[in-house]
Amino acid sequence: MPAPRTVLLTGAAGGLGTLMRDLLPAYGYELRLFDLRPVEGAPEAIVADLADKAAVREAVRGVDAIIHLAGISLEAPFEKILAANIAGTYNLYEAAHDEGVQRVVFASSNHAVGFTPRPRGEEPLIPVDTPRRPDTFYGLSKSFGEDLAQLYWDKHGLESVSVRIGSCFAEPTSVRMLSVWMSPADGARLLHAALTAENVGHTVVYGSSANTRLWWDLSTARALGYEPQDDSEPYAEKLVAEQGELDPENIAHAYLGGHFVSDPPIWPY
Ligand SMILES: NC(=O)c1ccc[n+]([C@@H]2O[C@H](COP(=O)([O-])OP(=O)(O)OC[C@H]3O[C@@H](n4cnc5c(N)ncnc54)[C@H](O)[C@@H]3O)[C@@H](O)[C@H]2O)c1
């Protein structure tokens, strides 16, 4: 597969999209931007809803690959998740298939497996093939996205990497995040690896830095060529002093998905 150059970035106005707009051009990509909202500083961005099939088809035409970040990124009423994350991701894959796009990198989430108990002590890291246990309708939509990616690979040969992102922010802000944090620079490294690795078929990876307190197995991400450079541990002393260590009796500290497992999810997390 020739290395992709032109990449459609959906969700370009969002938090992760904004970080990646800054970081990915250094890897040589030309980004085409897409979002429901205008993208600050980028009047050329396509402003459209994933529900608009004609606009989505037009947006994917001629790109080598897609990084699909657009969608609702927290828990929401099922009907909203259904439209944006489930039907929207279907529209994107259908357009990608129709237009002959080679590869999609799909922003999945740890919340697809959010009800998996987090490892404690010397327990093994959670592998990517752990059974799916979504913690929300949001997590359920990410499970759907991963299955959709598998279907389009098996049926149509459209490759995908589904990245179960932990928390990609400039700095970790909670003790839980020490385990699931992905620095923005590592996020760009992982997306670049997911875009350029050969023969990925449909590969599922966890998306985080090489955190000392890591909960999951990064081996499938490393197999793509991802070499994380960051670790949340330098933030640990301050966060633990402020918030204490994770409490085994607290349901929000017991599972990969953190507060998303509670009903309703407790904010902020
Ligand atoms: N940021 C993280 O740490 C994290 C963790 C796990 C998964 N993810 C996933 O990564 C992606 C990006 O996350 P984020 O934090 O930047 O979220 P975000 O909410 O900041 O951005 C999402 C963007 O998608 C756009 N969008 C929503 N519905 C749309 C629609 N119907 N059509 C077109 N655009 C639409 C929004 O306008 C927004 O700009 C999301 O899919 C999210 O679920 C992010």
Structure description:
The protein has 269 residues and is of the alpha/beta class. It has a single domain, classed as Rossmann fold. The chain is 33% helix and 14% strand. The protein contains eight helices and seven strands; from the N terminus they run E-H-E-E-H-E-H-E-H-E-H-H-E-H-H. The protein has helices at residues 15-23, 53-60, 78-98, 137-156, 177-180, 184-196, 219-223, 236-243; strands spanning 6-10, 30-35, 46-47, 65-68, 103-109, 159-165, 202-207. The chain has a seven-stranded parallel β-sheet with strand order 3-2-1-4-5-6-7, sandwiched between helices. Strand 1, helix 1 (15-23) and strand 2 form a beta-alpha-beta unit. Helix 1 crosses helix 6, helix 2 crosses helix 3 and helix 3 packs parallel to helix 4 (137-156). It is globular and about 50 Å long. Bound molecules: nicotinamide-adenine-dinucleotide. Residues 11, 13-17, 35-37, 49-51, 69-73, 84, 88, 107, 109, 165, 167-168 line the site of nicotinamide-adenine-dinucleotide.
